[in-house]
Write a structure and sequence with these properties.
- The protein has a four-stranded antiparallel sheet with strand order 1-2-3-4.
- The chain has about 130 residues and is an alpha+beta fold.
- The N and C termini lie far apart (about 65 Å).
- The longest helix has about 50 residues.
- The chain has one domain.
- GO terms for molecular function: zinc ion binding.
- This is GRF-type domain-containing protein.
- Keywords: Membrane, Metal-binding, Transmembrane, Transmembrane helix, Zinc, Zinc-finger.
């Protein structure tokens, strides 16, 4: 999508009011396409659109032209929003898992250091009663 031209505006639309976040945890930005296929069609995109391709958050701001039923269009937008929420939650879970793993490794290293100091007869900060 880097070759497609678009304009962005920091409008406070309905998507931002609902608190929808992209994969980076940022609020999406309203943009306007300037392509032959969709001239002037508005969409919500990641703040880092055309800078960082990892997120790929995308949601049409206008209801689909093919859908005559506004209820169907609203449900489709809701599905897209829920998928973005799931992606953001998965990212937060991965970050929490990494912090947990790093914490456990740090505790294990400290415990091993205490045991090594105790076996060598060196004073340790934590008194141990082994055997």
């Amino acid at each position: 999508m880097a070759s497609k031209s678009s304009r962005s505006s920091r409008s406070r639309g309905s998507e931002q009011k609902r608190g929808i976040l992209c994969g980076h945890g940022e609020r999406p930005v309203l943009r306007v396409l300037g392509t032959k296929e969709n001239p002037g069609r508005r969409f919500w995109g990641c703040v880092y659109y055309e800078v960082n391709d990892e997120c790929q958050f995308f949601c049409w701001a206008d209801p689909e032209a093919g859908s005559k039923d506004p209820h169907v269009a609203r449900l489709k937008r809701k599905v897209v929003a829920l998928k973005a929420d799931v992606k953001a939650s998965e990212w937060k879970l991965k970050v929490a898992a990494v912090f947990c793993l790093v914490g456990k490794v740090g505790c294990l290293c400290c415990w091993l250091q205490v045991l090594l100091n105790h076996n060598q007869g060196l004073p340790c900060l934590v008194p141990l009663k082994l055997g």
